[in-house]
Each structure stands twice: as C-alpha cells, then as structure tokens.
Amino acid sequence: MNYLEQFRAAKINSKLLEKLQQEFTVVKGKIKIMEVCGTHTQAISKIGLRELLPSNVELLTGPGCPICVTPFSYIDTAISLAQQEGVMVATFADFLKVPGSNSTLELEQAQGPNVKTVYSPLDAVKIAENNPEQEVVFLAVGFETTAPVIALSILDAQKKNLTNYSLLQALKTMPPVMEELVLNQYLDIDGFLCPGHVASIIGVEPFQFLAKEYDLPAVVAGFEVGDILFALEQIMEMIVRQEAKVVNAYPRVVEQKGNPKALKIMEQVFTSTVSRWRGLGKITNSGLELRPEYQEFAAENKFDFASATGKVAKQSGCSCGEVLMGIKKPTDCELFGTKCTPSHPLGPCMVSQEGSCAAYLYKVSVKMKLYSKE
Amino acid sequence: MNYLEQFRAAKINSKLLEKLQQEFTVVKGKIKIMEVCGTHTQAISKIGLRELLPSNVELLTGPGCPICVTPFSYIDTAISLAQQEGVMVATFADFLKVPGSNSTLELEQAQGPNVKTVYSPLDAVKIAENNPEQEVVFLAVGFETTAPVIALSILDAQKKNLTNYSLLQALKTMPPVMEELVLNQYLDIDGFLCPGHVASIIGVEPFQFLAKEYDLPAVVAGFEVGDILFALEQIMEMIVRQEAKVVNAYPRVVEQKGNPKALKIMEQVFTSTVSRWRGLGKITNSGLELRPEYQEFAAENKFDFASATGKVAKQSGCSCGEVLMGIKKPTDCELFGTKCTPSHPLGPCMVSQEGSCAAYLYKVSVKMKLYSKE
Amino acid sequence: MKTITLAHGNGGELMQELIKDIIYYYCGNDILLQQDDAAYLPEVEGELVTTTDSFVVDPIFFPGGDIGKLAVCGTVNDLAVNGAHPLYLTLGLILEEGLEIDKLKRIIKSVAETARKAGVKIAAGDTKVVPQGKGGGIYINTTGLGVVGPDINLQDAKIETGDKIIISGSIGDHGAAILASREEFEVSSALTSDCALLNNLTAQILSSSGGIKFLTDPTRGGLATALHEIAQQKQVTINLEEEILPIKKEVQGLGGILGIDPLYLASEGRVLCVAAAEEAEAVVNAMKDSPIGTGTAVIGEVTGDKSRVCLTTNLGGTRILRPLQKQLLPRLC
Amino acid sequence: MKTITLAHGNGGELMQELIKDIIYYYCGNDILLQQDDAAYLPEVEGELVTTTDSFVVDPIFFPGGDIGKLAVCGTVNDLAVNGAHPLYLTLGLILEEGLEIDKLKRIIKSVAETARKAGVKIAAGDTKVVPQGKGGGIYINTTGLGVVGPDINLQDAKIETGDKIIISGSIGDHGAAILASREEFEVSSALTSDCALLNNLTAQILSSSGGIKFLTDPTRGGLATALHEIAQQKQVTINLEEEILPIKKEVQGLGGILGIDPLYLASEGRVLCVAAAEEAEAVVNAMKDSPIGTGTAVIGEVTGDKSRVCLTTNLGGTRILRPLQKQLLPRLC
Amino acid sequence: MCIAVPVKVIEIVNDTEAVGAVKGVRKTVNITLISEVEVGDYVLLHSGCAIQKLNQSAAQETLAAFRDLAQDAGEER
Amino acid sequence: MCIAVPVKVIEIVNDTEAVGAVKGVRKTVNITLISEVEVGDYVLLHSGCAIQKLNQSAAQETLAAFRDLAQDAGEER
Ligand code: SF4
Ligand code: SF4
Ligand SMILES: [Mg+2]
Ligand SMILES: [Mg+2]
Ligand SMILES: [Mg+2]
Ligand SMILES: [Mg+2]
Ligand SMILES: [Mg+2]
Ligand SMILES: [Mg+2]
Ligand SMILES: [Mg+2]
Ligand SMILES: [Mg+2]
Ligand SMILES: [Mg+2]
Ligand SMILES: [Mg+2]
C-alpha cells in the first residue's frame, strides 16, 4: 500500500469521527465552521459528513466555488465572445452549464466551434497554436491554486509568439474574501477550514490574520476523509481551549512559505486588483490581473466589451446572490425546484451537485449560511 | 412546346436515320468519321447510334475527352498538391476517379478537406474567398468552351484581391490537335464532326483549314439526336459529291466569328502554348497558359513541382496512351476487364462509361481507331 | 433549452427528459412505453420479415418530406415490397450537437404521423448525440418487422422472358428534389420528392394478381441500378423502352443542367414490379387505382437470360445500362 | 482502394462490392444472403422481444474491444437482461468518407465473431457513407430480436424492501478505458473495457433462481443512473454501501485525475440484478460460476419506497445519488 | 468536350447575373461572357455561365432543313 | 476550490515534463512550477501541472497524529 492510501483507511476515519462527535457534544451552543474551498464542500458532501455531525454544528459553505462567485456579467461576456466569428472560448468544463442572460457556453458549444473545454490552460495554448486564424480566449477563473498554471500558459504563449491567445480575467484570491467574511456583521464564524490547495501555493502565512487579528481558529486542511475529520478536530480542540491559531494540518503538501517557484511565476504575470464577487460585490485586492507587460494577453484589450455587456438585458430572476449571502434560503427563491432544477439550472448554485440550491433540493442536509453586510 | 424541343422529335429523327442509312449503303468501301468532342461521343453512345449504322461506317472517337487526354503526371501533380497542408484542390467531378501513381483525387477527398468538386470555376473562387487560409488550386482542364469561364474566374479572383486562388494549367485547344491527327500518316479520316460548343466560342473559321488545306469535309454539329444525324448526313453528302467544305450545321449556337466577348476575355487572360497530350505527346500551340500579367495565379509559380513530380515512381501499367493512339485495342491491354474495371479503373479510358475501354468492355459497338505517327 | 447538447446523449436526466417530451409524446404506444432495455411484442401471425436502413439525407428537410418521413417510408417500403404487412419499427437517432430542438420535434412528429399512416408502431428507440461537426444534424436508423401471409410467395416466383416491367410513377423525383435543394447548384424548381408509403399499393398489387414475380423500390442508385440487381440476381435480360419511361420535365431539366442521368436518381415512393405478361394489364389497372399509382406504366420487359439491362433508345439503338458507378455529381462532360 | 469514398454509399457497384467482400464475407448466413429488400426469418417460438441501439463510441478501437464488438454486445445484452434468448441482429453502418477499409474489415470481423459467440445471426444490413467531417469514422446501429421462454416472467416481478442489489463485477471499466484512450488527457493505463456478452450469464442467473426481480446493464450514465431508473420506475429506495462497491484501482485513479465519479461511468459487460433477499446467495453463487461473473458482489439493497438511490459512505454518512446530469468532463472543482 | 444546355432567360438580376429556366427548373446564370442579353432570350449554359446566345431564326432554318431531309427519306423509300 | 491529486513521478521526460503515476494510471505532468523533482517523488497534480512536491516525512507525522487521535477515541469510549 502506497503511504498515501493510509489517509483513506476506513478504520482510523471512523475513530476520528467518533472522537469528533464526542467533542462536539461536549461543547454547548451552536458552532459554525466554514469551509471556504469548493473541493472541501464536495468532499464533505461525498462522505455525507454533515448529517453525521451533531445538530449544534453547522458547516458553512464559503465562497470557494469559482462558478458560484463569478458574476452574471462575466458569463454574458464569455458567451458574447464565443458568439463572435473567429473567437473560440476555452474553458474548464465546470462553466458549461452556467446560465447567462440568453444562453450558456454549452449551448454556444453546440452551435459551432465556439467553445472548447480543456483540462488545462496549457491545452488552450496548444489550441491557439494549432488554430492561428482563431482568437482563443481562456476563461481565467479560479483561485491561487490555478493562477500559477494560468500564468504559465501566458509565458508559454509568449515563448511561442502567439498573438491569438488571451485571458478573460476573473482570477480571485482567498484571504481577502475570507477577511471580508470575518468583517461581515451578520456572519458569526467560530472557525475556518482553510483551503489546502490554495495554501500549497501561498503557504500558511496569508491565513495568520484569522488568528492574529480576529482571534479565530483556522486549520489548513487536506481533502481525504481523514484530513477533514482531523482538521475539524483540531478546530474543535482550539474552540474548547478557547485558543486561536492557524494550524497546518496538511504539511505533506503545504509548506510554511508555499511554493516559491509557483508564486514567482504567478507574481511575474499577475498583480492584485479589485474583484467583483457574486453576492458580495467588489472586494479590494481580491482579484488578479495581468501586469502591464502582459496586457497584450488581456481579452479586454482585444475586444470591445461595452457592446458585449450592453446586451445584458434579461435577467434570469435567479436569487443566487442572495442565497450566497444568506439573505434568502434556496427555498425562498420562487424558481427553486420548479423552473430551476439541476437539469435546467437558472443560477450557478443549481449547476453543480454541491451548489447550495442543488444540495438543498435533494435534501442532503444543508446548513449553509452566509450573511452579507448590506 | 418550346421550339428547342423540336430538335428531339422522334419522328423526324427516325426519318433522318433512314436517310443516313440509305446514303451510307450507296457508298462503297469503309468510311471513317471522327467526332472530336467527348460530349458528341457521349450523345452517340446514349442514343445507341454506332450499331445502327452500316458496318462500313466507323465513328472514330477523337481526343476530346479532357480526362483521357490529360497526362498521368498532371494527375500526380494534382494529387500531390491536394496532399499538401493548406492546399485545397477544386475540380470538376469528372477527375475524381482518374488514377494517379498511388492515389486518386477521390481518395484524397476522402482523407480530409483536400479536394472539393465544383460545378463551376467561379465556385472555386468563392471557396477561396471563404477560406483565406487555404490555397485553392483549380484544375484548369478542358477546351475552348470552358477556357472563357476559367478566364472569368481569374478576373473575379483579381477583382476580389485573392492571393489564394490559382490554376493548375492544362487547358487545351481543338484545332491544333485536329491538324495533328490529319497529319498522322497512319490515320485515314474521311470527315470530321466538329465540336459545336468549342465552335460557339471560337466560331467556324478555325476549322476551315480542314477543307481548305486537307480537303476534308467537316460539319460543326450540335448535340441533339437530330443535330448529330443531320451533321453526319451533311458529311455523307459531301463525301458522295467529293466535295470538301466546313459546314455550320449548328447555326443557332455557332456564329461565324464565335463569341467575341468570350474570346476577348479568354485572350486577355490566356495565351497559346505547347501542350502535352496523353498518347500524342507535345503539340505546338495546342494549349493555353496564363499571360505574364496573370502569372501570379499560376500554381506552378506557387509550388515546387519538381519535388511533387519527383514522386512519380510507380506506373499503373495502363495502356491508355496506346489505346488512344490505336496501337493497342483495349482488349490488348493485359489489365483490361480483370484488374481494370469501371469500378476500379486503372486508366482514364475506363473511368467514364464512354471511355474507350469502358465502352469496349460493355460491348456497346465500339469502332474507335486512332493511329499515332510513331 | 432550444438546442441539442452532448448532455442530451449521456444517458442521464436531460436525455430521459428529451425522450419523454418528444419521442414518447409523439410516438408513444403501449409497447414503446414499456421503457425497458428491450420491448416485448404481442404474438404475431405469419412469416416474420425484417429489414434495416439508416437515413443520412442532406438536407434533412426537403420539398415533399423530411428525414423522419423518409425513415419510416423507406423501411416500411422495404417490408412491403417483400410482400410483408409491416407491424413494428425501431427508431435509432443519432443527433448532432447543435441541432435545434424544434427541428427534432418536427422530424419526430413526421415519424409518428407516417408510422400512424402505415399502421406500424414504434416498438423501441435509442438516442445518441455526437459532437458538433461529427454528424449531419440527424441520422435515423429504422429497423422494421413485418409478417407475410401464407398466400404470398414472392420468394419462389420465377422471372421469365416476356414478363413485363412496371413502375408506379415517374422516376428520379426524390433524387432530383434533393439535388435541387442543395444550395451550391443555385437551382430551384417546384419539384417535390415522391417519398411515400407503398404498403397499401403493394397489398393491392399482390391481391390483384397471382402473377407478380418481383417487387422492389428503386431507391439509391435509381431505376437502372435496381433493374441491374434484378437482372444479376435472377439472370435475366431486361429491356426498357426509352420512349415510354415516365420522367418529369423538371427531372429532365435538372439532369440536363447538372449532367446527371435520371435513370440513376432515387425514387422513394415508387414500386417497380415484374409481372407475368398476361397479368400485366390487370396489375397496371390495380396500380392505377391507387392514389400513388396513377402514373403507373409498363416500361419494358424481360427479353432473355444475359443478366443485363438494356435500353432501346428513341432512335431504335441500344444502350447497356450499368449499375451506378460514380457519385452523382455534376460533370464537365 | 484502401479508403471508403462517397461512391461506396451510392447504391451502385462499389457498394455492392463492399458489401459482398466485407459484410457477407464475415457475417454471411442463409438469412442475410437472401439479399432482398427485407429478410424472411424462420419460425420462432416464444414471446418476441426487440431492442435497438446506435453506437457512436470514440475512439472506435479501444483497449478491450472495438465498436463492432460493442455494437453486438450492447444489443444482445439488452435482450438478455430482459430475459430473452437473442436470435437475430440487423446491422446498420454509417461510414464516414475516409475510413480505412482495413479498419472497417477489423470492425466487421469483430461484429461477426461476437455474433457467433452470442449465437445470433445478422439478418439484414445497410451501409451508408457520409461526407468526410460529417461522421465519426463509423457509427453502427444494431437492432435485436430475441425470444423469451414461457418460464420467464420478469415483467410482473415486484421489487420489495429487503431485495438485494447484485452486480457481476467492477463498475465503470468501459467508461474509464474510453476516457483513458482519449489523447487530450495524456493518460495511459492497462485498463481494458469490460465489454462482454451477457446472454450466457443472464440465462444462468434466471435458471439459478425464481427470485430475480430485475436485470439491467449499467451502460451510459453508469451504475448510479441505472439504479436511479429502477428506483423511479419501481418506486423504491435503493441503498448502496460504498465500502463494498467493486471499483478497480485504475478507475479510481483516472476518476481522481479527471475529477469524474466512477458511479457515473459506463460498464458494457456487467449485469445489475435485483434479487429476493433469500435467493441472493444462490444467485451470487450462480453468477460467480460464470467466467464473466467472478467479480460478483452484493452492493446494496432495497430499503423503502422513496424512488431514490442512496449511498452509505465508508464513514457512515449518506449521499443521494442523482442520475447523471452533465457531460462527463474533467472539472476544475 | 463540354456539356452545355440552352436555358431561357426569365430575369436579369444585374450586370453579371440572370435567372435561366429550363423545363421548370430555374438556375442562376453568370452572363458576363455574352452581350446584350434580354429576358426571353435563350442562352447556352456551361459550367454556370452563359457562353452564347441562341439565334432563334437560325434554329428554325435548321429545323426546316431537318424536315426537308426527313421528307427526302420518306420519298426515296 | 481546486481538485488536485498526488501522483508518483516515474519518469522525468525533460525540463518541463514528467510522467506521473497513480493507481495504475500514467499521466503526463508539467513540472515547470516545482523545483528539483526526481523520480520517486510524489507531486500534487492540478490542471495538468505539478503544483507542489509532497513531503513524505510530514505525511507520516500527520498519519501518526491521526492514529494518536483515533486511539484517544477508542480509549474514551
Ligand atoms: S433556485 Fe436556481 S434561480 Fe433560485 S437561487 Fe437557486 S440557483 Fe438561483
Ligand atoms: S483497360 Fe484500363 S489499364 Fe488498360 S488501357 Fe484501358 S483504361 Fe488503361
Ligand atoms: Mg466563435
Ligand atoms: Mg490539402
Ligand atoms: Mg441496457
Ligand atoms: Mg437499448
Ligand atoms: Mg429502403
Ligand atoms: Mg439505447
Ligand atoms: Mg429497397
Ligand atoms: Mg433496406
Ligand atoms: Mg445497450
Ligand atoms: Mg439499405
């Protein structure tokens, strides 16, 4: 057995769960722990963890699903680009079904060679190389985990002298949005499950503010069942001990300083910028944009978006923003379960099985809440 | 009834045939009349005329099938062009099945977007216009009937500023090859059925040498059953009267001077050149080539044919040349009917139903002979 | 969603929805609605006959029909010309990503209507979606099941010299209508496809006379190819008379412009019949009684045993008709 | 000629040649060689069952099989899981211009061999050629005809709480093998498709016990979707145990790399069986006796009437398994 | 050499294009190669282009010649 | 946020490419984002790229911590 397999050993996991259950019952009152990473959300859902925890525990789903946090207008811009003659939009498959005003990328893909799903942005560069007559626009979404790979794609395109590769920029960074959440007066979080793969790039440092400035326990966690249980246990221990530290429970992947080489490449290509989050609005320094010397790879500079976004007329009536902010429950949305279903989603929260609305619909116990300051 | 329909009236045609049969039997000895136009060959075959004529009459098939007279190396060059990345060969469908050394255009068409059949060279220009990244090479074969249309395509491409349209030149002209045939010591022709559609462009003049210089009766003929019967009768009358004239029996389409406007366009773009004929070799002034001012549209100037034709290694063992020259009968070819069949032709004479070999195979009475001077 | 996407073919929820909303909606019946991996059929009486055809026509909508109507007619007709009473069809759809769902609906509606007219039920179906650029909008396979009554025995009939060749109407209409609807040729005409169900007509033919030797429908390859197959299979010479061949003027016109011989153009609603000479008149009369047989004509006869097809031309000459060899494409000469 | 051209599909001489040289050569039998518009079938005994499927797999050759084998297995299996003894298949080919004839031969040989193993005859066929760029090399439709003996009555069986869910081997091998063979992902493995004939196994299952409630093959959409269909159709709750699901390590590995859940990957040689609790052991033993059932396992049971599928995770949690919704594509998260 | 068919001009679209008709089939025809074409004219269509106008009186003369000859045949028999 | 899986490096192809293996599946991996990778190393694969090397001793320590905790649970019960 590969040593990594041991992280999945069922026997230890059951023991860890038992331990966790014991600890939670020791604590009186509600405890809210937020996982900010979509992949954590997915893992938690796949192991059916939420319902195994005592009823006084809520695992809140944070803004870590790149699909859910990307604003409506971005999708519309991507679609309008795909519709242009000579433009091919390259994207991670996750985006295909997200509805824009009148279409989805999946529908545009069906109309012609307008949308291509890729496994990696490096594949998008290859497509641009092989189709010199097409402008290949890669939908640059995701967080620090993906940003270095996208940066690499820019360096690759530059080395190949490609003038037909560009990014539609919406890369985001985690710590600023986490701080925004902490500052939110309606939101009351007892601890954070920090995103392990983001941390594998940026290290533990950037999360220290949680403990130091806001007195919140936080654990950088991996994604195996054991990792998650262990991390929750570490948070619980801190809560019980009324202690606030940022613990690295994923040291096999997360170095204190992250991955210096990846960070260097990322910083060579990108710089911080304000970014707009669905349901949260604009957050300072929460996004990445191409540095001036790479602006030739910005789709913004190659196309006139005014005309594109001018098209945004019809809204789908989706309440995803409010759901994400906790102003509404999914069931409060009048489209929920009737006009909006996983097969015909009207909002991003219904797109993936782990989206807040989809999860709610299928009665997997959902205890997500996220209040906005507005 | 449209007045043109009257040319097909069965009753008159039967009478004409009767008359013709009577005349032929009057004449003693063999009479050989050559139709030089492939469309005449086809019409004669479609009405089953050969077997209706007395046995002392032979209708010889001349070099008027653009497929049959185009040399092997031309097909190979066309195929090697089609095989090149970024090159699309546009062609009349007739050429698809003609075998080259290792392939046919039909096979190349099947491999990818390498060959496109068109109804008109003007369509090839449209294809070039819509596919700026492809070089569209039109296979410029045919005679004076088609040459003006091909000239028009060049003017069209020029007007549209296309730099990706070119011709692979093999256009031929009729009168020079007819003179070559007349001069052939082994060939003994009593009269010519002159090509009516070539004459619609070039007029009657260019055929006068047949009567004036070689004392041969010749009739410019149309393509309806009545046209052909009437023309043969006119030739017979002259033979009987030992008279040699060039008669225009297709005056509804053929003017004495042809079509001046078409001629002007043709001469604007093309000039006479030596041309190579399968089975007959090179004949002076029997071809058309782009004038110097249009040489930018010559595929010869865009591609290196030395390398292409260098590939011509394997020969198919086809005896088409000798069959066309009358040195061999189709049945003398060892491939005839066994390895070479209409479904799997090895030579151009087997490609169309009216090709010498195909016709022979299916026992439609074939009486073609054509001797070379070699 | 107005367009077919790959998700409509992945076996999941969207596909089930598509099948329910369109296929079951239009074609639903007790057998199809079993919805299992396979469908149980009620007991049948008579000899079972089966046939299969895939339809890849371009364009999918054409004057006189669409690929849905064609797919039902084609397979019903193949059963019918073998003397069978058609009972069931299966329906295999290969949709191309990007097909408009409205078009699919029109086509399936057409399938359902034609099946109803033919008296056949869609017994089973399948839907696949292929990526954009790997299909032709829609390809349809229909496989048919029918039964032949005890009184019909086409298999053992012997074709003899003197037998008449009869066709139920003009030839090549379908092929010409398809060509005319292809944009690249820049032609237009009022011509419509002859696409039609033949099962009533064949039943009428078979009940009108015991002298029927052979029935077929001259589809791909046209009349010449269909007759060539008979000539080869039954080792007979078939002779046609050019002068009495029913060819519409538009078909002739299009053939002239494009250099295509109508003898090689497909019909999709004509029966080609070989009948004993003495029965020919009765057969022709029976055929003319049918609304789709009004143009019935004797076009030739069996004249020997040379496994070939000849055409006596208007002038009295003879042309040997070979099976179709090339693509039907406009030619230079 | 080494390549399929449009002329191979025009109904003419080249097509006839192709059919004779390849289809008849490999698949020829007394019924197919009738060569008529439709084929007469010998008398059958039992209740008739039919099914149809088109196969559009990409790539057409994959580890463990090819589209020909798949096309026969798929349709034979659909008959088999409905309790039928498969007898006849029809074979509808849609070839893309440019397909190498050698590849076609390999595929048809594979069709013939698999049909022989299954004991079915190819009763009728059809060949169409679509232009280069309008197909996927080759698409195949097979339509099957089989008979169900009087002793088998799956249709009326009632699924009840306590019934066991049994699968004949590891899940998702076919889907994973296909994904692994797609170049764009730059992966490789020794994984082969599970593509196999199930008719012997289903016959064994049905003769081993009268307690069989339902049989199916979890193809497109995978195990989760197949079970969801049962749950919906029969209005039962099905509960799976994650810990005992047989999933090969390569399938897990590929799922991890590409972000794809093996529960939604197709199997093409597995039987999914619902059996009465008290019969489960006998059924499992009978299945294990078959060479393609050695990996048989009970993976869950019927636990209620909620029309849903649940998975009890290794940790004891519950996941609701929805039918497949999206394309199976690698995801970012 | 070259298939060509007569069509009747039923519409002049512009300097370069006309619509021809024959036996109920209409076809777009390029008319650049001929001069002074009018609706009602017959033109000879080859490879998408009109390559010559038809001379109707010459046609009638040819037909008359046919008939004369055909009559000859009748008489001589 | 981001799916990533650990794979074992079984071949270094060149400066930018390696072959990784996990559970019998091999995958081409871009290694530009990490330094000093060797055959036998485990790396974290995300979107076609190795984004970090795995630290094996840290992994063992974490596993030990798991076990300790699990034992706690056993004892406390
Ligand atoms: S139910 Fe649909 S429309 Fe309503 S908030 Fe959720 S995703 Fe948006
Ligand atoms: S039989 Fe074939 S190979 Fe021989 S001369 Fe004729 S065309 Fe050429
Ligand atoms: Mg586009
Ligand atoms: Mg090419
Ligand atoms: Mg099935
Ligand atoms: Mg099926
Ligand atoms: Mg048919
Ligand atoms: Mg199916
Ligand atoms: Mg038929
Ligand atoms: Mg058929
Ligand atoms: Mg199946
Ligand atoms: Mg067929």
From TrEMBL, chains A, B:
InterPro entries: Hyd_form_HypD (IPR002780), HypD_1 (IPR042243), HypD_2_sf (IPR042244)
Record's keyword annotation contains Metal-binding: yes
Entry keyword annotation includes Mitochondrion: no
Top-level taxon of origin: Bacteria
One Gene Ontology molecular-function label: iron ion binding
GO term, biological process aspect, one: protein maturation
Keywords: Iron, Metal-binding
NCBIfam families in UniProt: hypD
Family assignment from sequence similarity: Belongs to the HypD family.
Name of the protein: Hydrogenase expression/formation protein HypD
Originating organism: Halanaerobacter jeridensis
Automatic annotation (TrEMBL), chains C, D:
GO biological process: protein maturation
Domain of life: Bacteria
CDD domains with a match to the protein in the record: HypE
One Pfam family recorded for the sequence: AIRS_C
Span of domain PurM-like N-terminal: 36-148
Coiled-coil stretches noted in the UniProt entry, renumbered to this chain: none
Stretches assigned to the PurM-like C-terminal domain: 161-307
Gene3D superfamilies on file: PurM-like C-terminal domain (3.90.650.10), PurM-like, N-terminal domain (3.30.1330.10)
InterPro entries according to UniProt: HypE (IPR011854), PurM-like_C_dom (IPR010918), PurM-like_C_sf (IPR036676), PurM-like_N (IPR016188), PurM-like_N_sf (IPR036921)
UniProt family annotation: Belongs to the HypE family.
Protein name: Hydrogenase expression/formation protein HypE
Species name: Halanaerobacter jeridensis
UniProtKB/TrEMBL annotation, chains E, F:
SUPFAM superfamilies linked to this entry: HupF/HypC-like (SSF159127)
Family matches, as PROSITE patterns: HUPF_HYPC
InterPro entries: Hydgase_assmbl_chp_CS, Hydrogenase_HupF/HypC
Alphabetical list of Gene3D superfamilies matching this protein: 2.30.30.140
GO term, biological process aspect, one: protein maturation
Top-rank taxon, per record: Bacteria
A Pfam short name: HupF_HypC
Family statement: Belongs to the HupF/HypC family.
Protein's organism: Halanaerobacter jeridensis
GO molecular function: carbon dioxide binding; iron ion binding
Protein name: Hydrogenase expression/formation protein HypC
